[in-house]
Amino acid sequence: MAEPLVGNLLVAQSGGPTAVINASVAGVINEAGRHECIEEIYGGLNGVYGILHENLIDINEESNKSVQALKHTPAAALGTCRYKINFKKDPEQAEKDMNRLFEVIEAHNIRYFFYAGGNDSQDTTNKVHQEAAKRGYDIRAIGVPKTIDNDLPHTDHTPGYGSVIKYNATTVMEVGADVSSMATDDGSCCIIEVMGRAAGWIAAGTMLAKEQPNDPPHIILLPEIAFDEAKFLARVKEVVDTCGCCVVVVGEGLKDAEGNEIGADKSKLDAFGHPVLAGAADRLAEIVEPALNLKTRTVKLGYAQRAAAHYASQTDVDEAFTCGTAAVQAAVQGQSGYMVKLVRESDEPYRWTTGLQPLDDIANLEHFIPRDWISEDGWLPNEKFETYARPLIQGELHLPTKGGLPAFARLKKIAVEKKLPAREA
Amino acid sequence: MAEPLVGNLLVAQSGGPTAVINASVAGVINEAGRHECIEEIYGGLNGVYGILHENLIDINEESNKSVQALKHTPAAALGTCRYKINFKKDPEQAEKDMNRLFEVIEAHNIRYFFYAGGNDSQDTTNKVHQEAAKRGYDIRAIGVPKTIDNDLPHTDHTPGYGSVIKYNATTVMEVGADVSSMATDDGSCCIIEVMGRAAGWIAAGTMLAKEQPNDPPHIILLPEIAFDEAKFLARVKEVVDTCGCCVVVVGEGLKDAEGNEIGADKSKLDAFGHPVLAGAADRLAEIVEPALNLKTRTVKLGYAQRAAAHYASQTDVDEAFTCGTAAVQAAVQGQSGYMVKLVRESDEPYRWTTGLQPLDDIANLEHFIPRDWISEDGWLPNEKFETYARPLIQGELHLPTKGGLPAFARLKKIAVEKKLPAREA
Asked: Are A82 and B408 an interchain contact pair (Cβ–Cβ within 8 Å)?
């Protein structure tokens, strides 16, 4: 075992939030409290962007109750950012940023750095790890996985994914019941748009709503399968003739055979001359309604799906929390330059553990639904997908409430005193 | 007390479903089981439309477990319709329908008729009551209130309303946390569209998400207040400058001073030459994004909000169930031609009971948010509204689950043998 490295801890969040990214932070905080070598626990506000501005908060000032409540609080409690230290795009700015980042890290004696996020965030964590080695500064940098998109490689799945598909599948069941109960002789169609620009993991997850063959969702349009308008219309008609209505789920990133996004309406430009993103569901409704003379309605869940902590998966919360604790354990044991990953040990009963993957293996790899997890005709994921996804949505929360609504954490965010001059942009 | 009227019971549902309209049916069924004078319990499939086709099911064939599960099952378990027996629009068809309806009623010895629905459904119930009197046919017809829109007169509120605002307010909290946590120096805007074409009750209910003055939602656009684009843009800018982001809730029926719906895009016609309903949120985003150079995203909950049984209000479920039991009790006691209404006895502690309102008083009256329940500047409902709405969202469900998702009722729907020739349209 390595010599204990004594110093302070910095945890931050990055990228689009999820229902459980705060649970990972709670895991980090909780585990940090168990190790004497970790002195102060700081949070970086708005990810690396805020750290560059030396915007740190003292997490030890937060009540234990608030830290516990983080497990059930959606969005990024520390704030998030899309800022990236990008050596390819702007090497000069990136070098400036990296220097500034290490000024902040050294000024606050940060020896443990944890960054929860997706692809870009893992890349940032890796840069911190590498730069520290170059500088001979002893730090342990570990990435904590996060993304509703489930598109990180090497991990069985990502924290955040189980909750988004639990909520979305529930919504599809409920909307499906609604639409079915209104089905008149004329039939009807409802198109539900969910997130997922590159991969169809989120859309695919709604197949869990299906108990019997004719249950909604009847069609799931995945970005992995090129959209064919004629085939789609024929399939909708077929479903309506059989079931009286057709519930379609579409991933926002649906593309045709030429790779054009269906939701981008090129005939309509905004004030900047960019095509208006009408949204895939609205665009499909414009196709279905006149072609089949079918009443068609749309639902666009947008941010609601990734923030739906009120119906998060307890399994997902547990896994997210454990990814945070595993990150701290690995760092205390002397590891750096890794991402925590989830490792599946068995499907049924579902058993999992965590592992470590070198951050070098992560960058800019995306992972897609295997073709043989999708039915031959391409309209729905199959039982292989279900075996994979079903365990991830298990477990109901016991969510504290206030005034009839979920009681989410409110951090006090006591600022750590700044030690450096303001950042020059 | 009137002589007990012995015969069969028919219950049906009509109009847009809610999260708790099945709880009202469960209340009817449960109470009916307590009265010897009620022999068979039939459900009419797809409301009056199905009854005209003699599509009845035998509810006594359903398991008690299924009937209990109805309390937590969204949508209309018996099916619903928008069909109306309309003497004004088509008196000939209406007379034909009414004759057919009574053929069905008499063929099946229906003596108790309960119809759960909104304005139109109460009108239908009233017609059944009046026609029976004219014919000297002894029947007890009672309306059960339902509508997420909360636009029925005389009742304090409608079953279905508490659940839709609980879910929507939770969604606004969650999306608000998400948007706030991503707030960069440039600010951002998120526009959430909710139902409510004529009245703003549903949109107004999301104010319950607000705990502190700067919490989302920052602006609620109500159909009751004429939309003024310039003032709106100024207000969004003001909020972004203060809070870093602006979360707007808009009722789908938002109108300008001339009464034009904001969501109707007249520049774009569908295949039938009708203006495409782009949706109020998308239309507002088209206004905000270029005018304020502000990243703007939209959420359109659509049917998801009225079907969200997984986060229904227990108070609402209880009230809906009790409206069903009260309808049966009134009928057994000899009443007919009434709608059950909810009567508020006190705000805090919240106490309520049911009453009866003559159906003659209901038809085609709508009820709007009083102007003095809205802030002077028109951007948000005030504390009078909160006092009214807060009790309606109280209480968490204990929802049974299956495979990680809500376990909803599945009725067997055993058909009652038909006794009449098929309906002539």
From this structure: no
Residue pLDDT, tens place only, A80-128: 998 889 888 999 999 999 999 999 999 999 999 999 999 889 999 999 9
Instruction: Among A79-93, A365-379, B321-335, name the most confident range.
Output: B321-335
- Top CATH class, B7-146+309-363+394-406: alpha beta
Nearest CA in chain B to A297: B302
Please calculate the CA angle B358-B137-B83 and round it to the nearest 5 degrees: 60
Yes or no: say if A260 and A223 are a contact pair by the CB < 8 Å rule: no
pLDDT per residue over A186-221, tens digit each?
789 999 999 998 899 999 999 999 999 999 999 999
The CATH class of A7-146+309-362+397-406 is: alpha beta
Residues of chain A with CATH 3.40.50.460: 161-306
pTM of the model: 0.96
Mutate to test the interface with A, among B78, B182, B402 (most CBs of A within 10 A): B182
Contact A75 B181 (CB under 8 A): yes
- Both tokens of A238, joined, read 């077929």
Catalytic site positions of A: 149
pLDDT of residue B186: 78
pLDDT band at B271 (very low <50, low <70, confident <90, very high): very low
Tell me how close the Cα of B240 comes to any Cα of chain A, in angstroms. 16
Task: Answer whether B17 sits within 8 Å of A406, measured CB to CB.
Answer: no
Torsion of CA A237, A242, A245, A249, to 10 degrees: -70
Ranking A253-257, B133-137, B331-335 by mean pLDDT, the lowest is: A253-257
A72 to chain B, closest Cα gap in Å = 11
Percent of residues, chain A, with pLDDT higher than 90:
88
Q: Do B286 and A276 touch (CB under 8 A)?
A: yes
Is A171 near chain B, with CB under 8 Å?
A: yes
**CA A116/CA A26 separation, integer angstroms:** 11
Pick the CATH number of A161-306 from 3.10.50.30, 3.20.20.70, 3.40.50.460, 3.10.180.10: 3.40.50.460
Of B17, B290, B406, the CB nearest to A272: B290
Which one, of A163, A34, A166, A133, lies nearest residue B403 by Cα? A166
A280 close contact with B: CB closer than 8 A: no
Cα–Cα distance for residue pair B322/B76, rounded to 1 Å: 17
Q: Tell me, what's the ipTM?
A: 0.96
Residue B264's pLDDT band, with cuts at 50, 70 and 90, is confident
* Positions of CATH 3.40.50.450 in chain A: 7-146+309-362+397-406
Tell me which residue of A127, A90, A81, A76 sits closest to A105, measured CA to CA: A127
Among A82, A170, A265, the residue to mutate for chain B (most B Cβ within 10 A) = A170
Distance CA B63, CA B60 (A): 8
Eight-state DSSP code of residue A392: G
